[in-house]
Amino acid sequence: MPKQTFIKLPIDKRETLIRAAIKEFSRAPLFEASIANIIKEAGIPRGSFYQYFEDKEDLYYYLLDDSSKRLNER
Question: Of 15, 20, 21, 35, whose Cβ has the fewest other Cβ atoms within 10 Å?
Answer without folding.
Answer: 15
